[in-house]
Amino acid sequence: MKTIQNISVALVAFAAIFISQVVPAHADNEKLDFTLVNKTGYGIKAIYIAPSASTDWGDNILEKTLENSDELAISFDAKEKAEKWDLRIEWVDGGDAVTWKECKLTEITKITLHYDRDKDTTSADIE
Question: Relative to the CA of 38, which of 14, 15, 51, 125 has its CA 20 to 30 Å away?
Answer without folding.
Answer: 51
